[in-house]
Amino acid sequence: MRTVGVEEELLLVDPETGEPRAMSAAILARAAQEPGEEDVFEKELHDQMLEFATHPQADMEKLHAEIVRCRKEAARHAGGIGCAVAALATSPLPASPAVGVSRRYQWMAEQYGAVVQEQLVLGCHVHVAVDSDEEGVAVVDRVRPWLPVLTALSANSPFYQGKDSGYSSYRSRVWQRWPSAGPTELFGSAETYHRRVSDMVATGTLLDEKMVYFDVRLSEQYPTVEFRVADVCLHSGTAVLLATLARALVETAVRQWRAGEEPADPSVSLLRLAAWRAARSGLTEELLHPATMRRMPAETVVRALLDHVEEALAGTGDLERVREGCAELLRDGNGARVQRELLERTGSLRDVVTECVRRTQG
């Protein structure tokens, strides 16, 4: 059974006002003083962000338990300095992002200007183990049409700089401003993939391979395929649902590759439209169906994803759990819908943040 690891980026906020706070350095210093915590949490581009990474897990219940534990530990360390953490993919309240002082982040700030200042956005990255780069590229080529569905399921960023953006996942729209971000054409082989990455870095536009921000890519650090299209999820259970679906997509793609099935080849132009539609609509309206690239109800498209990976989910014993998780999201709403309902009920973005702080640990 393939192992899965999750990276989550959390927003640091003032527990009273809900405004973002640039406190990541102090939190990391506290965590580093405790055995076993020094490698869990990491600094991100902006000082109002804190990232953690789980260990690779084959058992999804263990993965869920680790995500919950890491969230609680992040909240404990933040609380020790009068701060709080929220699993929000954008700040609902206005923010003035503070770029980290590392040489890398300062290079990015100088190179990309206003784009860096806009990137106080927080994602959930899922790593799924693969046996080789060839297998990994076969996955990258075959999961492309399904990635917007993951964005729709995870959408958790309706507000940006104090206003309703009109999107369910505005984070994904902001993220697309990086020059290397977005969907890719078919690669066909690991050799072609690595040559493309090398050519991109050689332009001097990117600092290194880490800045190749494909929607799904080979990890340059681990033997994994990394899914990068999801918002950080308000509820930990949604993050586990995404990880389970990502593993099933990988397993399904590998089986197709081994059987000699060619990948579907929708154009990058259509994939960009599908990603935009998922960011705009989330689960409340229509999405582009991966097989036809035509608009259909979100429930129909989610059902198509479940049908596509059914055999893989059944093989790992995750089918019923995933069906129930998707049904719950479609019924009760993703993070974007929850945030909008909170604002409608309370009339206050501050109260939205306060409740999301509570739910982050719940």
Automatic annotation (TrEMBL):
<dbReference type="InterPro" id="IPR006336">
    <property type="entry name" value="GCS2"/>
</dbReference>
<dbReference type="InterPro" id="IPR014746">
    <property type="entry name" value="Gln_synth/guanido_kin_cat_dom"/>
</dbReference>
<keyword id="KW-0547">Nucleotide-binding</keyword>
<comment type="similarity">
    <text>Belongs to the glutamate--cysteine ligase type 2 family. YbdK subfamily.</text>
</comment>
<keyword id="KW-0436">Ligase</keyword>
<dbReference type="InterPro" id="IPR011793">
    <property type="entry name" value="YbdK"/>
</dbReference>
<dbReference type="GO" id="GO:0042398">
    <property type="term" value="P:modified amino acid biosynthetic process"/>
</dbReference>
<comment type="function">
    <text>ATP-dependent carboxylate-amine ligase which exhibits weak glutamate--cysteine ligase activity.</text>
</comment>
<dbReference type="GO" id="GO:0004357">
    <property type="term" value="F:glutamate-cysteine ligase activity"/>
</dbReference>
<dbReference type="InterPro" id="IPR050141">
    <property type="entry name" value="GCL_type2/YbdK_subfam"/>
</dbReference>
<keyword id="KW-0067">ATP-binding</keyword>
<protein>
    <recommendedName>
        <fullName>Putative glutamate--cysteine ligase 2</fullName>
        <ecNumber>6.3.2.2</ecNumber>
    </recommendedName>
</protein>
<dbReference type="Pfam" id="PF04107">
    <property type="entry name" value="GCS2"/>
</dbReference>
<dbReference type="GO" id="GO:0005524">
    <property type="term" value="F:ATP binding"/>
</dbReference>
